[in-house]
């Protein structure tokens, strides 16, 4: 039985983790013993969901009162991840940290270093790795790697609709960035998972000076054997989807639903063909012949992620998304922020375009904003 | 009310509170106000998530429970004008309008600009409709009924609020960059799924978002304009076919991509019956209550039925053999018969410099290209990113 402390009882607990954690409590594999949040209202709500749990206003108090806690799930605002993880590691606790792993590369490195020193598991919440469609895309990219360079385009936009408890996400000092570190980090993780280590070629966003964060961002990226661009928006839907092209074939997945994938042959006028995404993941703690399960929605992906973490704790398996994976993606995001140029917005009236270009956060004044918020990167 | 500050040129800076600043219109108004030296925008949103659209620009925004009059009045206390651009729960439109009015009055604001909608006249199927025609409070759409009831309420209090002018604007479909009514066209063109009812001859009662903002600013800037109700729209009348073709051409699709169906039939489907049921307030509320309580599997299945399965771009769907399966709302929009007259607005609020339809189509197409809806072009296809860099 793994004793769990959940840190940050906001929307992530309520809408993502609550049901899977209860499911695993029901299986007798873990027990949520401690809930940590600075807000009394959220602590009270969370206590209603987990009958064995006690609530605390800070993480040291939880360790002091409960004693043996094996796994800390950290879903507090990103600026607090490193501090919360450090306390957990100091108490010999494993850590599953929600994305982004931290709000700066230096903080994430410290987390990884502490985990290594203490010999504890450091996993990161990147549930899209469990999407059956992503597994198909990964296999497809591998199969087509020999047929010449692959091209890709990834677009994901929607009006922001996550029921946030606070506005910290929208300030660079507390959120670390905007749509890129929120939505874009999932996309970048998917790309790294599919293609391997990535390299940033170009980056543009629309954030202004004054601690603002971007609501639109675009990156050009290169991976071993592939190249393409990524575009994310908090303002409106884009032509959403992930499109990969080889010399002879194309693959497209809509991102949602999580198991939809289409392919087509190039050049012969053939239409798109829908594939059945059959990727499965171990759904028990057996070392050999584990029962396999194909997730059908994001809640089941979170469940698979938690099972993966439990298997790592019990069986020593590498988690599907490790802290190192989270760090690599965060490094790309931070590089994108460092190199960000103003996003061209030709649909704006000319005067507004000029004003937008002049007030971009990475212009002379804005450069200081990055260094202030990111600390000693 | 607190004393407004003075700007660099010695003019008094007036303050405009934008209720619903996180919405499409509210956010655009807030951005335009940033460029005005004599007007300062104060955004009012009801939840933290609404800050996302405003997060890229430094703005004064207050998170307030907009359903509580006292709390809202406090947030408005240093503002001269209130723009009610709230676009929330469709079953609460009247209540929200009433709260906004009471709060603005309590805060001693001088002007309330209320965003109503041309939908209060349904399909606008009478040539005699004018700005003061009674709105249709029995419309089949819950949103339309809410807007109509709000108008009736505002008309009833217009005389009472002597210290505050009330100007209700009735835009049609608000289009332009980031608008759902423009994104919809890009989406359908890229999927090859456009099919317009009634040969595309219906009137698209469009107003470009920047034109609407200019009209709101004209009302704010006029100290002598009267209270009243005003139809607002773009300077030129456009049919649905012209609207789609205008964007189709600019995005590089062949003209044949905009397919039409010759008559105005709407095939009856179970989906339409469901849509009709959800426009009854009690059923809507039950559905809204159920939504967060049903499993993700049920939600996914319902989404598939309502919205259809996502389909990759680039394919043209087969030629339609029956009337297009539109939602009743889209069918009604595509079969609008008359354009609402706008003379009253220009009479009372003077000439306003509006963007022409051609120029608005250019800027909208530019955003649609950015969003990835341009036609696949030769070798580069969907991988063309030249419109971004």
Describe this structure in words.
- The complex is a heterodimer of chains A (377) and B (389).
- With 377 residues, chain A is of the alpha/beta class.
- Chain A folds into two domains: 2-128 and 298-321, Rossmann fold, CATH 3.40.50; 129-280 and 328-374, Dihydrodipicolinate Reductase, domain 2, CATH 3.30.360.10.
- In chain A, 38% of the residues lie in helices and 23% in strands.
- Chain A is built from twelve helices and 17 strands.
- Chain A has helices spanning 11-26, 40-47, 59-66, 81-90, 105-118, 132-144, 172-175, 179-195, 298-315, 323-338, 350-358, 364-374; strands at residues 2-7, 30-36, 54-56, 71-74, 94-98, 122-125, 150-157, 199-205, 216-223, 226-233, 241-245, 249-253, 260-265, 273-276, 281-282, 292-293, 341-342.
- In chain A, the strands form three sheets. Chain A has a nine-stranded mixed sheet with strand order 14-13-12-11-7-10-9-8-17, with helices on one face.
- The longest helix of chain A has 18 residues, at 298-315.
- The model of chain A is unreliable at 370-377 (pLDDT under 50).
- By secondary structure, chain B is of the alpha/beta class.
- Chain B has a domain at 14-176 and 207-237 and 338-355: NAD(P)-binding Rossmann-like Domain (Rossmann fold).
- Helix content of chain B is 37%, strand content 12%.
- Chain B has helices at residues 24-34, 69-76, 93-106, 142-158, 180-191, 209-221, 240-250, 270-278, 281-290, 296-307, 328-334, 343-349, 357-370, and strands at residues 14-19, 39-45, 60-63, 81-84, 111-115, 165-170, 173-175, 195-196, 206-208, 228-231, 259-260.
- A seven-stranded parallel sheet of chain B has the order 3-2-1-4-5-6-10, with helices on both faces. A two-stranded parallel ribbon of chain B has the order 7-9. A two-stranded parallel sheet of chain B has the order 8-11.
- In chain B, strand 5, helix 4 and strand 6 (165-170) form a beta-alpha-beta unit.
- Chains A and B meet through strand 7, strand 9, strand 10, strand 11 and strand 13 of A and helix 1, helix 5, helix 10 and helix 13 of B.
């Amino acid at each position: 039985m793994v004793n769990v402390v959940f840190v940050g009882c906001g929307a992530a607990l309520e809408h993502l983790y609550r049901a899977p954690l209860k499911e695993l409590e029901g299986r007798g594999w873990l027990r949520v013993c401690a809930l940590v949040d600075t807000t009394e209202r959220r602590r009270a709500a969370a206590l209603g969901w987990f009958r064995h749990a006690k609530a605390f206003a800070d993480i040291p108090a939880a360790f002091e009162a409960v004693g043996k806690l094996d796994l800390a799930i950290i879903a507090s605002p990103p600026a607090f991840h490193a501090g919360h993880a450090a306390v957990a590691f100091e108490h010999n606790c494993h850590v599953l940290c929600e994305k982004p792993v931290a709000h700066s590369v230096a903080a994430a490195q410290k987390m990884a270093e502490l985990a290594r020193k203490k010999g504890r598991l450091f996993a990161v919440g990147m549930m899209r790795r469990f999407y059956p469609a992503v597994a198909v895309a990964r296999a497809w990219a591998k199969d087509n790697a020999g047929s010449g360079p692959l091209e890709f385009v990834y677009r994901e936009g929607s009006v922001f609709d996550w029921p946030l408890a606070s506005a910290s996400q929208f300030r660079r000092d507390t959120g670390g960035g905007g749509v890129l570190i929120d939505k874009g980090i999932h996309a970048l993780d998917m790309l790294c998972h599919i293609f391997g280590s990535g390299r940033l070629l170009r980056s543009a966003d629309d954030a202004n000076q004054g601690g603002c964060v971007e609501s639109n961002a675009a990156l050009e990226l290169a991976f071993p054997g592939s190249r393409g661009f990524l575009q994310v928006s908090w303002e409106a839907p884009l032509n959403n989807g992930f499109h990969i092209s080889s010399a002879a074939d194309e693959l497209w997945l809509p991102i949602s639903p999580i198991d939809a994938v289409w392919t087509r042959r190039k050049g012969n006028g053939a239409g798109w063909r829908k594939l059945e995404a059959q990727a499965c993941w171990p759904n028990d703690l057996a070392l050999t012949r584990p029962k396999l399960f194909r997730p059908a929605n994001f809640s089941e992906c979170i469940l698979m992620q938690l099972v993966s973490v439990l298997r790592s704790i019990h069986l020593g398996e590498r988690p599907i998304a490790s802290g190192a994976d989270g760090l690599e993606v965060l490094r790309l995001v931070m590089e994108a922020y460092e190199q960000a140029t103003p996003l061209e917005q030709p649909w704006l009236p000319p005067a507004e375009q000029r004003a937008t270009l002049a007030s971009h956060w990475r212009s002379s004044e804005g450069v200081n904003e990055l260094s202030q918020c990111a600390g000693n990167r | 009310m607190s004393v407004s500050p003075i700007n660099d040129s010695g003019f008094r800076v007036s303050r405009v509170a934008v209720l619903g600043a996180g919405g499409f219109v509210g956010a655009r108004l807030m951005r335009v106000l940033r460029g005005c030296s004599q007007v300062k925008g104060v955004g009012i949103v009801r939840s933290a998530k609404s800050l996302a659209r405003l997060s890229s620009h430094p703005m004064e925004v207050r998170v307030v429970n907009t359903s509580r009059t006292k709390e809202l009045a406090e947030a408005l206390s240093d503002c001269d004008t209130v723009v009610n651009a709230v676009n929330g729960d469709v079953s609460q439109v009247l209540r929200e309008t009433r709260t906004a009015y009471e709060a603005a009055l309590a805060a001693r604001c001088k002007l309330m600009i209320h965003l109503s909608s041309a939908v209060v006249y349904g399909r606008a199927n009478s040539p005699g409709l004018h700005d003061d025609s009674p709105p249709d409070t029995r419309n089949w759409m819950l949103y339309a009924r809410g807007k109509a009831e709000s108008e009736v309420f505002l008309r009833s209090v217009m005389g009472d609020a002597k210290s505050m002018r009330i100007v209700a604007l009735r835009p049609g479909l608000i289009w332009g960059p980031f608008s759902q009514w423009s994104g919809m066209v890009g989406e359908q063109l890229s999927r090859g799924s456009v099919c317009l009812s009634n040969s595309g001859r219906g009137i698209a009662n469009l107003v470009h978002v920047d034109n609407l903002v200019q009209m709101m600013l004209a009302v704010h800037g006029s100290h002598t304009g009267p209270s009243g109700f005003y139809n607002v729209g773009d300077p030129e009348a456009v049919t649905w076919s012209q609207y789609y073709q205008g964007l189709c051409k600019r995005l590089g699709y062949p003209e044949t991509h905009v397919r039409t169906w010759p008559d105005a039939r709407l095939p009856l489907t179970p989906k339409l019956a469901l849509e009709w049921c959800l426009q009854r307030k009690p059923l809507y509320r039950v559905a809204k209550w159920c939504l967060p309580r049903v499993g993700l599997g049920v939600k996914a299945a319902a989404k598939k039925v309502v919205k259809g399965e996502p389909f990759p771009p680039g394919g043209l769907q087969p030629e339609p053999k029956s009337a297009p399966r539109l939602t009743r709302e889209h069918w009604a929009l595509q079969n609008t018969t008359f354009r609402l007259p706008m003379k009253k607005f220009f009479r009372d609020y003077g000439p306003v410099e509006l963007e022409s339809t051609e120029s608005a189509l250019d800027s909208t197409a530019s955003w649609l290209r950015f969003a990835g809806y341009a036609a696949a072009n030769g070798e580069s296809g969907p991988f063309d990113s030249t419109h971004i860099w």
